[in-house]
Write a structure and sequence with these properties.
The protein is mainly beta. It has two helices and 28 strands. It has one domain: TolB, C-terminal domain (Neuraminidase). Strands 1-28-27-26 form a four-stranded antiparallel beta sheet, with no helix packed on it. The protein has a four-stranded antiparallel beta sheet with strand order 2-3-4-5, with no helix packed on it. A four-stranded antiparallel beta sheet has the order 6-7-8-9, with no helix packed on it. The N terminus is likely disordered.
Amino acid sequence: MSRSFSGLKVWWIVLVFILIIVVLALSANYLGVRPTVTGSEVEGVALPEGFAIDVYADDLGSTLLSLGGPSPGPRMLMIKDGLLFVSIPNKGIIGILPDRNNDNVADELQVFIQDLDYPHGIDYYDGWYYIAEESRVIRVRDDNGDLEADADSLEVLIDNLPTGGHYTRTVKVHDGELYLSIGSSCNVCDESNEMRAAILKSNLNGSNLTVFASGLRNSVGLAFHPVTGQLYATENGRDWLGDNTPPDEVNLIVEGGDYGWPECYGKNIFDTDFNNSEYIGNPCNDSGRIQSLVDLQAHSAPLGLTFYDDDTFPEKYQGDLFVCYHGSWNRQEPTGYKIVNIDMDTLQVNDFATGWLKAATINGRPVDVIVADDGSLFVSDDNAGKIYRIHYEG
């Protein structure tokens, strides 16, 4: 009896071991490459002819591929009076990266404000710095100009935001109104809180908070067109529908618009995996959902975006929309890890900066992109802990 039990136990151990090996093999295959962060140079980044890329700031926090939760590196960027501001959620700070000797390299990371709750979005308007934390939106001033937020100026504008799930909160101020993007609490579900998977709008003091647009699973990047004032946003589609479904998106946001999630994606494709009910016709079109403006490769994870409104780059890039692809984590063949430019006349998507993804190595994950005062682009990388400067040399 003892010998039989012992043999059975051995077989169970063997079976469990085999199952572990199979699960690890499948996971490795489906999750794709595991990244490593190597060096501080950018020689491997490919750009169109005439462009160059340099490291503007380094050692801002780095990690292996983050599969959720606050990234330790730099995220969203803003320029005020020639100074580059950056959010670093995991450190709880908004920092400033001054370049006092004008050598296009940051002198230091100066803390503007600290002890925040995963700060992400930042914007400036009329003497106030607006900061979106995971659980609230605040604003502060720097009236004495010492590049530190005045402690007694802090005002909580919007409190008790829903937490968990997608933690990023992106804030923008436009035409005297505040816009706030909040991602979903899940991969795909019916949200009980209307503030989730939406872009909200309020007065500058946080009053009259309403849902501006809904059905947006995770719109991390917000950008207003410099001429028309229209709002554009990136959208990260759901997971677990395969390597190429659903597309990630760039959307033209209109007030009151429903952009489909969780039931619809892309060009109003109905998600039968989430809702397998039978309908006559297309419930996405019939319910007035707004389809994507531009479909992007699934799992590219588009985050920050900006319109190029300077004349330093060649004419073909002027007016283009630049978008950072943070990169896939659940695709058999990794994708993303680059910056694209979108021609707003044709909506053609073109590779602009590539090379952070090489075979089994990921050297960086672009997050946000903004136009600097000299017409160059600043790009944040939360995986390598860097800020890059892309400029045109001709």
